[in-house]
Amino acid sequence: MNIEVNSVEETQKIAEKLGQLVEPNMILLLDGDLGAGKTTFAKGLAVGLGITRNVKSPTFPIVREYREGRLSLFHMDVYRLEGMGGADLGLDEYFNSDGVSVVEWSEFIQDELPDDSLRITLLKDEDDDNRRVIKLDSYGSQYTRILEQLVKKNG
Amino acid sequence: MSAEKKNLILAFESSCDETSVAVVEDGHIILSNIVATQVNSHKRFGGVVPEVASRHHIEQITSCVQDAMTEANVSYDDLDAVAVTYGPGLVGALLVGVSAAKAIAFAHELPLIPVNHMAGHIFAARYESEISYPSMALLVSGGHTELVYMPEEGQFEIIGETRDDAAGEAYDKVGRVLGMTYPSGKEIDELAHTGKDTFNFPRAMIKDDNYDFSFSGLKSAFINTVHHADQLGETLDRADLATSFQQSVVDVLAEKTLRACHEYDIKQLILAGGVAANKGLRARLEADMEKMDTVEFIKAPIKLCGDNAAMIGAAGYVEFLKGQRAGLDLNADPSLEFDWIA
Q: Where along the sequence do coiled-coil regions lie (chain B) (predicted)?
Protein backbone atom coordinates (compact mmCIF):
# COMPACT_ATOMS: atom_id res chain seq x y z
CA MET A 1 0.00 0.00 0.00
CA ASN A 2 1.29 3.46 -0.88
CA ILE A 3 0.31 6.73 0.78
CA GLU A 4 1.43 10.08 -0.62
CA VAL A 5 2.19 12.89 1.78
CA ASN A 6 3.21 16.48 1.19
CA SER A 7 4.59 17.55 4.53
CA VAL A 8 6.22 16.46 7.77
CA GLU A 9 2.87 16.97 9.50
CA GLU A 10 1.09 14.59 7.13
CA THR A 11 3.77 11.95 7.70
CA GLN A 12 3.33 12.30 11.44
CA LYS A 13 -0.47 12.05 11.19
CA ILE A 14 -0.25 8.70 9.37
CA ALA A 15 2.30 7.47 11.89
CA GLU A 16 0.12 8.61 14.77
CA LYS A 17 -2.85 6.62 13.44
CA LEU A 18 -0.63 3.57 13.10
CA GLY A 19 0.56 4.12 16.66
CA GLN A 20 -3.04 3.84 17.87
CA LEU A 21 -3.40 0.46 16.15
CA VAL A 22 -0.19 -1.43 16.82
CA GLU A 23 -0.21 -4.40 19.20
CA PRO A 24 2.30 -5.85 21.68
CA ASN A 25 5.43 -7.43 20.20
CA MET A 26 4.91 -5.87 16.77
CA ILE A 27 7.96 -4.95 14.74
CA LEU A 28 7.98 -2.05 12.34
CA LEU A 29 10.89 -1.74 9.93
CA LEU A 30 11.47 1.85 8.96
CA ASP A 31 13.56 2.33 5.83
CA GLY A 32 14.52 5.26 3.65
CA ASP A 33 17.50 7.44 2.77
CA LEU A 34 19.22 9.87 5.12
CA GLY A 35 16.78 12.71 5.70
CA ALA A 36 13.75 10.79 4.35
CA GLY A 37 11.92 11.29 7.65
CA LYS A 38 12.36 8.05 9.56
CA THR A 39 12.71 9.70 12.95
CA THR A 40 9.84 12.04 12.02
CA PHE A 41 7.68 8.97 11.44
CA ALA A 42 8.77 7.49 14.78
CA LYS A 43 7.78 10.74 16.52
CA GLY A 44 4.24 10.44 15.11
CA LEU A 45 4.06 6.81 16.12
CA ALA A 46 5.04 7.72 19.68
CA VAL A 47 2.24 10.29 19.85
CA GLY A 48 -0.19 7.57 18.75
CA LEU A 49 1.08 5.36 21.55
CA GLY A 50 0.46 8.10 24.08
CA ILE A 51 4.12 8.89 24.67
CA THR A 52 4.64 12.50 25.64
CA ARG A 53 8.41 12.55 25.90
CA ASN A 54 10.37 13.98 23.00
CA VAL A 55 11.51 11.23 20.62
CA LYS A 56 15.10 11.87 19.58
CA SER A 57 17.21 10.17 16.96
CA PRO A 58 18.51 6.83 18.25
CA THR A 59 21.43 6.72 15.82
CA PHE A 60 24.14 7.09 18.41
CA PRO A 61 22.75 5.05 21.32
CA ILE A 62 21.26 2.52 18.81
CA VAL A 63 18.22 1.98 21.06
CA ARG A 64 16.06 4.47 22.92
CA GLU A 65 13.34 3.16 25.21
CA TYR A 66 10.05 4.92 25.95
CA ARG A 67 8.03 3.09 28.55
CA GLU A 68 5.28 5.50 29.53
CA GLY A 69 2.76 4.96 26.70
CA ARG A 70 -0.08 2.54 26.01
CA LEU A 71 2.70 0.18 24.93
CA SER A 72 6.44 0.58 25.41
CA LEU A 73 8.26 1.88 22.35
CA PHE A 74 11.73 0.58 21.55
CA HIS A 75 13.14 2.90 18.93
CA MET A 76 16.20 1.40 17.27
CA ASP A 77 18.54 2.66 14.60
CA VAL A 78 21.12 0.21 13.34
CA TYR A 79 22.74 2.70 10.95
CA ARG A 80 26.02 2.32 12.82
CA LEU A 81 26.00 -1.44 12.42
CA GLU A 82 26.45 -1.43 8.65
CA GLY A 83 28.71 -4.28 7.57
CA MET A 84 28.76 -6.03 10.93
CA GLY A 85 25.19 -6.86 11.90
CA GLY A 86 23.77 -6.77 15.39
CA ALA A 87 24.11 -10.38 16.47
CA ASP A 88 25.55 -9.60 19.90
CA LEU A 89 23.34 -6.67 20.78
CA GLY A 90 20.40 -8.61 22.18
CA LEU A 91 17.89 -6.72 20.06
CA ASP A 92 15.67 -9.82 20.00
CA GLU A 93 15.08 -9.32 23.70
CA TYR A 94 13.30 -6.09 22.83
CA PHE A 95 11.30 -7.80 20.09
CA ASN A 96 9.67 -10.13 22.64
CA SER A 97 9.08 -7.85 25.59
CA ASP A 98 5.47 -6.77 24.90
CA GLY A 99 6.35 -3.40 23.44
CA VAL A 100 6.51 -2.11 19.89
CA SER A 101 9.90 -2.18 18.20
CA VAL A 102 10.75 0.25 15.44
CA VAL A 103 13.94 -0.50 13.53
CA GLU A 104 15.51 2.14 11.31
CA TRP A 105 17.96 0.96 8.61
CA SER A 106 16.72 -2.61 9.13
CA GLU A 107 18.61 -3.85 6.05
CA PHE A 108 21.83 -3.82 8.10
CA ILE A 109 20.54 -6.51 10.47
CA GLN A 110 18.34 -8.40 8.04
CA ASP A 111 19.47 -11.83 9.23
CA GLU A 112 18.49 -11.11 12.82
CA LEU A 113 14.93 -9.99 12.15
CA PRO A 114 11.85 -12.17 12.56
CA ASP A 115 9.91 -13.18 9.42
CA ASP A 116 6.74 -11.29 10.32
CA SER A 117 6.83 -7.50 10.33
CA LEU A 118 5.49 -4.33 8.83
CA ARG A 119 7.93 -2.66 6.46
CA ILE A 120 7.54 1.09 6.10
CA THR A 121 9.62 2.66 3.35
CA LEU A 122 9.85 6.42 3.01
CA LEU A 123 10.61 7.44 -0.56
CA LYS A 124 11.78 10.96 -1.27
CA ASP A 125 10.52 12.79 -4.33
CA GLU A 126 13.15 13.71 -6.92
CA ASP A 127 11.70 17.16 -7.49
CA ASP A 128 9.80 18.15 -4.37
CA ASP A 129 11.80 18.07 -1.11
CA ASN A 130 8.65 17.99 1.04
CA ARG A 131 6.89 15.19 -0.79
CA ARG A 132 7.14 11.54 0.24
CA VAL A 133 5.60 8.26 -0.73
CA ILE A 134 5.09 6.06 2.32
CA LYS A 135 5.18 2.44 1.20
CA LEU A 136 3.65 -0.05 3.63
CA ASP A 137 4.23 -3.78 3.19
CA SER A 138 2.88 -6.35 5.62
CA TYR A 139 4.49 -9.72 6.25
CA GLY A 140 2.20 -11.88 8.38
CA SER A 141 -1.56 -11.84 8.95
CA GLN A 142 -1.51 -9.64 12.07
CA TYR A 143 0.27 -6.93 10.11
CA THR A 144 -2.11 -7.24 7.17
CA ARG A 145 -4.98 -6.73 9.60
CA ILE A 146 -3.35 -3.61 11.04
CA LEU A 147 -2.89 -2.18 7.57
CA GLU A 148 -6.57 -2.77 6.76
CA GLN A 149 -7.50 -0.90 9.93
CA LEU A 150 -5.15 1.91 9.00
CA VAL A 151 -6.80 2.26 5.60
CA LYS A 152 -10.22 2.57 7.29
CA LYS A 153 -8.91 5.04 9.84
CA ASN A 154 -7.20 7.10 7.20
CA GLY A 155 -10.48 7.40 5.30
CA MET B 1 54.18 14.86 60.12
CA SER B 2 52.06 12.59 57.98
CA ALA B 3 51.23 13.15 54.36
CA GLU B 4 47.67 14.14 53.70
CA LYS B 5 45.46 11.24 52.73
CA LYS B 6 44.71 11.14 49.03
CA ASN B 7 41.58 9.59 47.63
CA LEU B 8 42.13 7.19 44.78
CA ILE B 9 39.24 6.10 42.59
CA LEU B 10 39.28 3.35 39.99
CA ALA B 11 36.81 4.39 37.29
CA PHE B 12 35.08 2.46 34.51
CA GLU B 13 33.43 3.62 31.29
CA SER B 14 31.87 1.30 28.70
CA SER B 15 28.63 2.97 27.66
CA CYS B 16 29.26 3.01 23.93
CA ASP B 17 32.25 2.45 21.64
CA GLU B 18 35.09 2.98 24.11
CA THR B 19 36.23 0.66 26.85
CA SER B 20 38.08 2.75 29.39
CA VAL B 21 39.52 2.40 32.88
CA ALA B 22 41.26 5.14 34.85
CA VAL B 23 42.85 5.78 38.23
CA VAL B 24 42.10 9.29 39.48
CA GLU B 25 43.50 11.06 42.53
CA ASP B 26 41.26 13.47 44.47
CA GLY B 27 38.97 13.84 41.48
CA HIS B 28 41.29 16.04 39.48
CA ILE B 29 44.63 14.31 38.91
CA ILE B 30 44.85 11.55 36.32
CA LEU B 31 47.24 8.78 37.31
CA SER B 32 46.19 6.68 34.33
CA ASN B 33 43.43 6.79 31.72
CA ILE B 34 43.41 3.78 29.40
CA VAL B 35 41.05 4.03 26.43
CA ALA B 36 40.58 1.11 24.06
CA THR B 37 38.72 2.62 21.15
CA GLN B 38 36.91 0.47 18.67
CA VAL B 39 36.72 3.08 15.97
CA ASN B 40 40.14 2.64 14.38
CA SER B 41 39.98 -1.11 14.10
CA HIS B 42 36.73 -0.87 12.18
CA LYS B 43 37.43 1.75 9.58
CA ARG B 44 37.22 -0.94 6.96
CA PHE B 45 33.44 -0.81 7.26
CA GLY B 46 32.85 1.80 4.59
CA GLY B 47 33.09 4.79 6.85
CA VAL B 48 30.55 3.52 9.29
CA VAL B 49 31.12 2.39 12.67
CA PRO B 50 32.62 0.41 15.23
CA GLU B 51 31.65 -2.57 17.01
CA VAL B 52 29.49 -1.64 19.92
CA ALA B 53 28.83 -5.21 20.83
CA SER B 54 29.46 -6.06 24.42
CA ARG B 55 31.79 -8.86 23.32
CA HIS B 56 34.35 -6.28 22.35
CA HIS B 57 34.16 -4.59 25.74
CA ILE B 58 34.55 -7.95 27.46
CA GLU B 59 37.69 -8.65 25.46
CA GLN B 60 39.17 -5.29 26.39
CA ILE B 61 38.19 -4.61 29.95
CA THR B 62 40.53 -6.90 31.87
CA SER B 63 43.62 -5.63 30.12
CA CYS B 64 42.38 -2.05 30.53
CA VAL B 65 42.15 -2.59 34.31
CA GLN B 66 45.64 -4.08 34.44
CA ASP B 67 47.11 -1.30 32.32
CA ALA B 68 45.38 1.38 34.37
CA MET B 69 46.65 -0.07 37.67
CA THR B 70 50.18 -0.59 36.34
CA GLU B 71 50.46 2.83 34.76
CA ALA B 72 49.15 4.50 37.92
CA ASN B 73 51.56 2.36 39.92
CA VAL B 74 49.00 1.57 42.59
CA SER B 75 47.71 -1.62 44.21
CA TYR B 76 44.11 -2.46 45.09
CA ASP B 77 44.92 -1.71 48.73
CA ASP B 78 45.62 1.90 47.75
CA LEU B 79 42.16 2.42 46.28
CA ASP B 80 39.32 4.16 48.12
CA ALA B 81 36.42 3.50 45.77
CA VAL B 82 35.29 2.17 42.42
CA ALA B 83 33.20 4.40 40.15
CA VAL B 84 31.29 3.26 37.09
CA THR B 85 29.05 4.60 34.33
CA TYR B 86 25.65 2.91 34.71
CA GLY B 87 23.80 4.93 32.04
CA PRO B 88 22.83 6.22 29.58
CA GLY B 89 24.15 3.94 26.86
CA LEU B 90 23.70 0.58 25.29
CA VAL B 91 22.59 -1.92 27.89
CA GLY B 92 24.96 -4.73 26.84
CA ALA B 93 27.91 -2.36 26.72
CA LEU B 94 27.09 -0.72 30.06
CA LEU B 95 26.75 -4.06 31.80
CA VAL B 96 30.35 -4.99 31.03
CA GLY B 97 31.67 -1.98 32.95
CA VAL B 98 29.09 -2.33 35.72
CA SER B 99 29.90 -6.03 36.20
CA ALA B 100 33.65 -5.45 36.22
CA ALA B 101 33.33 -2.58 38.70
CA LYS B 102 31.11 -4.65 40.98
CA ALA B 103 33.52 -7.59 40.91
CA ILE B 104 36.44 -5.40 41.94
CA ALA B 105 34.41 -3.54 44.57
CA PHE B 106 33.25 -6.84 46.05
CA ALA B 107 36.63 -8.58 45.93
CA HIS B 108 38.49 -5.66 47.52
CA GLU B 109 35.70 -4.41 49.81
CA LEU B 110 35.54 -1.00 48.18
CA PRO B 111 32.52 1.30 47.95
CA LEU B 112 30.81 1.31 44.55
CA ILE B 113 29.81 4.68 43.12
CA PRO B 114 27.26 4.92 40.29
CA VAL B 115 27.98 7.69 37.76
CA ASN B 116 25.78 9.21 35.08
CA HIS B 117 27.78 9.27 31.85
CA MET B 118 26.61 12.81 31.07
CA ALA B 119 27.80 14.08 34.46
CA GLY B 120 31.10 12.47 33.55
CA HIS B 121 31.33 14.53 30.36
CA ILE B 122 30.74 17.74 32.31
CA PHE B 123 33.34 16.79 34.92
CA ALA B 124 36.00 16.32 32.24
CA ALA B 125 36.22 20.10 32.70
CA ARG B 126 37.40 19.50 36.28
CA TYR B 127 40.83 18.67 34.82
CA GLU B 128 40.93 22.22 33.48
CA SER B 129 39.63 24.11 36.48
CA GLU B 130 37.67 23.83 39.71
CA ILE B 131 33.95 24.01 39.16
CA SER B 132 32.02 26.68 41.02
CA TYR B 133 28.26 26.85 41.33
CA PRO B 134 25.78 27.72 40.04
CA SER B 135 27.07 26.89 36.59
CA MET B 136 25.82 26.01 33.13
CA ALA B 137 27.09 23.28 30.79
CA LEU B 138 26.68 22.95 27.05
CA LEU B 139 26.93 19.24 26.44
CA VAL B 140 27.39 18.33 22.77
CA SER B 141 28.22 14.88 21.46
CA GLY B 142 27.15 12.24 18.97
CA GLY B 143 24.17 11.29 21.09
CA HIS B 144 23.43 14.47 23.05
CA THR B 145 22.98 18.18 22.65
CA GLU B 146 21.74 19.79 25.81
CA LEU B 147 22.07 22.75 28.11
CA VAL B 148 22.41 21.66 31.71
CA TYR B 149 21.99 24.00 34.67
CA MET B 150 23.82 23.05 37.86
CA PRO B 151 22.50 25.05 40.83
CA GLU B 152 24.90 23.27 43.17
CA GLU B 153 27.35 20.41 43.20
CA GLY B 154 25.77 17.14 42.17
CA GLN B 155 22.56 18.73 40.85
CA PHE B 156 21.83 18.69 37.13
CA GLU B 157 18.78 20.13 35.39
CA ILE B 158 18.25 20.07 31.65
CA ILE B 159 16.91 23.42 30.47
CA GLY B 160 16.93 22.52 26.77
CA GLU B 161 18.00 19.77 24.41
CA THR B 162 17.84 18.68 20.80
CA ARG B 163 14.38 17.74 19.57
CA ASP B 164 15.77 15.32 16.98
CA ASP B 165 19.41 14.74 15.99
CA ALA B 166 22.38 15.51 18.21
CA ALA B 167 24.91 17.96 16.74
CA GLY B 168 27.59 15.26 16.51
CA GLU B 169 25.24 12.97 14.66
CA ALA B 170 24.52 15.69 12.10
CA TYR B 171 28.30 16.02 11.56
CA ASP B 172 28.67 12.29 10.95
CA LYS B 173 25.72 12.06 8.58
CA VAL B 174 26.74 15.09 6.57
CA GLY B 175 30.25 13.63 6.49
CA ARG B 176 28.88 10.49 4.93
CA VAL B 177 27.28 12.54 2.16
CA LEU B 178 30.71 14.12 1.56
CA GLY B 179 32.29 10.66 1.41
CA MET B 180 34.28 11.08 4.63
CA THR B 181 35.14 8.26 7.03
CA TYR B 182 33.42 7.93 10.39
CA PRO B 183 33.62 9.80 12.64
CA SER B 184 33.80 12.85 10.42
CA GLY B 185 33.48 15.74 12.87
CA LYS B 186 37.18 16.50 12.91
CA GLU B 187 37.53 16.40 9.13
CA ILE B 188 34.56 18.75 8.62
CA ASP B 189 35.93 21.08 11.31
CA GLU B 190 39.28 21.29 9.50
CA LEU B 191 37.67 21.76 6.10
CA ALA B 192 35.36 24.40 7.56
CA HIS B 193 38.34 26.65 8.26
CA THR B 194 39.18 26.83 4.55
CA GLY B 195 35.83 27.76 2.99
CA LYS B 196 33.12 30.42 3.07
CA ASP B 197 29.54 30.35 4.32
CA THR B 198 27.93 30.58 0.90
CA PHE B 199 24.97 28.23 1.27
CA ASN B 200 23.30 29.92 4.21
CA PHE B 201 21.75 26.77 5.65
CA PRO B 202 18.85 27.12 8.10
CA ARG B 203 19.49 28.01 11.76
CA ALA B 204 16.60 26.08 13.25
CA MET B 205 14.95 27.40 16.42
CA ILE B 206 17.61 30.07 16.85
CA LYS B 207 15.06 32.76 17.75
CA ASP B 208 12.63 30.49 19.60
CA ASP B 209 11.94 31.38 23.19
CA ASN B 210 13.38 28.17 24.64
CA TYR B 211 16.72 26.40 24.93
CA ASP B 212 15.96 23.55 22.57
CA PHE B 213 17.84 22.70 19.39
CA SER B 214 17.06 20.94 16.12
CA PHE B 215 19.62 19.70 13.61
CA SER B 216 17.50 17.38 11.52
CA GLY B 217 16.36 20.17 9.19
CA LEU B 218 19.94 21.31 8.66
CA LYS B 219 20.95 17.76 7.80
CA SER B 220 18.09 17.51 5.27
CA ALA B 221 18.89 20.92 3.76
CA PHE B 222 22.51 19.88 3.32
CA ILE B 223 21.58 16.53 1.74
CA ASN B 224 19.03 18.15 -0.57
CA THR B 225 21.52 20.80 -1.68
CA VAL B 226 24.13 18.18 -2.58
CA HIS B 227 21.52 15.93 -4.18
CA HIS B 228 20.09 18.66 -6.41
CA ALA B 229 23.57 19.66 -7.55
CA ASP B 230 24.27 16.01 -8.39
CA GLN B 231 21.09 15.87 -10.46
CA LEU B 232 22.28 18.85 -12.47
CA GLY B 233 25.74 17.39 -12.84
CA GLU B 234 27.24 20.20 -10.75
CA THR B 235 29.95 19.72 -8.15
CA LEU B 236 29.74 21.96 -5.12
CA ASP B 237 32.77 23.30 -3.28
CA ARG B 238 33.36 20.90 -0.38
CA ALA B 239 35.06 23.50 1.76
CA ASP B 240 32.18 25.94 1.33
CA LEU B 241 29.71 23.18 2.16
CA ALA B 242 31.64 22.30 5.32
CA THR B 243 31.97 25.95 6.35
CA SER B 244 28.30 26.66 5.75
CA PHE B 245 27.24 23.60 7.70
CA GLN B 246 29.55 24.29 10.63
CA GLN B 247 28.56 27.96 10.72
CA SER B 248 24.93 26.98 11.07
CA VAL B 249 25.64 24.52 13.90
CA VAL B 250 27.94 26.92 15.75
CA ASP B 251 25.59 29.91 15.35
CA VAL B 252 22.69 28.07 16.94
CA LEU B 253 24.71 26.47 19.73
CA ALA B 254 26.46 29.72 20.61
CA GLU B 255 23.42 31.96 20.44
CA LYS B 256 21.24 29.78 22.64
CA THR B 257 24.04 29.07 25.10
CA LEU B 258 24.76 32.75 25.43
CA ARG B 259 21.14 33.53 26.05
CA ALA B 260 21.11 30.91 28.82
CA CYS B 261 24.24 32.49 30.33
CA HIS B 262 22.52 35.86 30.41
CA GLU B 263 19.29 34.59 31.84
CA TYR B 264 20.69 32.38 34.58
CA ASP B 265 22.78 33.76 37.38
CA ILE B 266 25.86 31.58 36.90
CA LYS B 267 29.55 31.72 37.66
CA GLN B 268 30.80 29.42 34.92
CA LEU B 269 29.97 28.05 31.50
CA ILE B 270 31.35 24.58 30.80
CA LEU B 271 31.74 23.22 27.29
CA ALA B 272 31.85 19.42 27.25
CA GLY B 273 31.15 16.31 25.17
CA GLY B 274 32.75 14.95 22.00
CA VAL B 275 31.78 17.95 19.87
CA ALA B 276 33.39 20.25 22.46
CA ALA B 277 36.64 19.34 20.68
CA ASN B 278 35.38 21.24 17.61
CA LYS B 279 37.74 24.18 17.05
CA GLY B 280 35.10 26.33 15.40
CA LEU B 281 32.76 25.97 18.38
CA ARG B 282 35.52 26.54 20.94
CA ALA B 283 36.75 29.68 19.19
CA ARG B 284 33.27 31.10 18.78
CA LEU B 285 32.26 30.59 22.41
CA GLU B 286 35.61 31.90 23.58
CA ALA B 287 35.11 35.13 21.63
CA ASP B 288 31.50 35.49 22.80
CA MET B 289 32.30 34.74 26.43
CA GLU B 290 35.10 37.27 26.54
CA LYS B 291 32.42 39.93 26.42
CA MET B 292 30.73 38.42 29.48
CA ASP B 293 33.15 39.14 32.27
CA THR B 294 30.89 37.84 35.03
CA VAL B 295 30.95 34.28 33.69
CA GLU B 296 34.10 32.19 33.48
CA PHE B 297 34.35 29.95 30.41
CA ILE B 298 35.80 26.46 30.93
CA LYS B 299 36.39 23.99 28.14
CA ALA B 300 36.89 20.30 28.76
CA PRO B 301 40.45 19.44 27.66
CA ILE B 302 40.36 18.25 24.03
CA LYS B 303 41.81 14.85 24.88
CA LEU B 304 39.07 14.29 27.46
CA CYS B 305 36.12 15.39 25.29
CA GLY B 306 35.46 11.90 23.95
CA ASP B 307 34.34 9.03 26.18
CA ASN B 308 36.93 8.11 28.81
CA ALA B 309 37.04 6.83 32.38
CA ALA B 310 39.00 9.76 33.85
CA MET B 311 35.91 11.94 33.52
CA ILE B 312 33.90 9.25 35.30
CA GLY B 313 36.51 9.30 38.08
CA ALA B 314 36.14 13.08 38.43
CA ALA B 315 32.34 12.91 38.60
CA GLY B 316 32.54 9.84 40.84
CA TYR B 317 34.77 11.67 43.30
CA VAL B 318 32.09 14.29 43.90
CA GLU B 319 29.53 11.54 44.55
CA PHE B 320 32.05 9.73 46.75
CA LEU B 321 32.46 12.76 48.99
CA LYS B 322 28.70 13.16 49.17
CA GLY B 323 28.39 9.57 50.39
CA GLN B 324 26.61 8.30 47.30
CA ARG B 325 26.93 4.50 47.14
CA ALA B 326 25.44 1.69 45.07
CA GLY B 327 24.83 -1.85 46.22
CA LEU B 328 25.99 -4.90 44.37
CA ASP B 329 22.54 -5.00 42.80
CA LEU B 330 23.41 -1.92 40.69
CA ASN B 331 21.96 -2.35 37.22
CA ALA B 332 22.61 -0.57 33.94
CA ASP B 333 20.06 2.13 33.07
CA PRO B 334 20.18 2.67 29.29
CA SER B 335 17.70 5.57 29.41
CA LEU B 336 19.18 7.43 32.39
CA GLU B 337 18.88 11.18 32.04
CA PHE B 338 19.14 14.32 34.11
CA ASP B 339 15.99 15.83 35.54
CA TRP B 340 14.18 18.48 33.58
CA ILE B 341 13.86 21.84 35.16
CA ALA B 342 10.33 22.30 36.49
A: none
